[in-house]
Amino acid sequence: MKYKIITISFLLVSVFTANAQQERVSKQLYTNAYKIATDRNEDINVRKAASFKVDAITYLNMRTLMAIVDTTKHLSNKEIVHLNAQLDSMAYYMHEYVNLFTKEYTRSDKQKRKEQIFKIFRDASINHPLYNDPDKSLVLVYFNSDDYLTQFSLDTNWVAALAEVKKKLVE
């Protein structure tokens, strides 16, 4: 009987662990983007966009962990769950943001429209900070890089930025 209880306990723990891992949107998006970013057979621009996603999710993870381990605040379990849900949500909307940008930019055949799309997305990312991070050299590393088409701020509220972009694309 004792062994059955231990076996059932291990099964439950493994099921809950598997479900928790499946629910981590940020981890799945990170893993997929990392695979693309490191695939030497992939197009360089696709790899660069994936590299941005990897770094954006890493930044979101870092900021979430900083908030969770902040010893000046005593977070409840509910607040920790909220921070993790926010991490997953921001990672998902960032992924959608980059994908929409890529779709709109590559679909446009006129240079003037490409420049408009680029400006809309770039401006929206800088106009909607999530953390108001003072470390501008970090959060603007892609924003100030001409080597990347994804010149977006890492410190972005991706939900608000995506909403703004969608609104401006139909104007």
Description:
Residues 1-20 form the signal peptide. Keywords: Signal. α3 packs antiparallel against α4. This protein is 74% helix and 0% strand. The protein has 171 residues and is mostly helical. The N and C termini lie far apart (68 Å). It has one domain. The chain is built from 7 helices and no strands.
Helix content: over 70%
Element-level helix/strand string: HHHHHHH
Low-confidence stretches: 1-21
How large is the count of helical segments? 7
Radius of gyration: 19 Å
Sheet-strand content, in percent, reads under 5%
Mean pLDDT: 89
Shape: globular
Give the topology.
Elements: H1 2-23, H2 25-37, H3 44-69, H4 77-107, H5 111-127, H6 136-139, H7 158-170
Helix pairs in contact: 2-3, 2-4, 3-4, 4-5, 4-7, 5-7
Question: In brief, what are we looking at here?
Answer:
This protein has 171 residues and is mainly alpha-helical.
Kindly list the characteristics that best describe this protein.
171 residues, mainly alpha, 7 helices, globular, signal
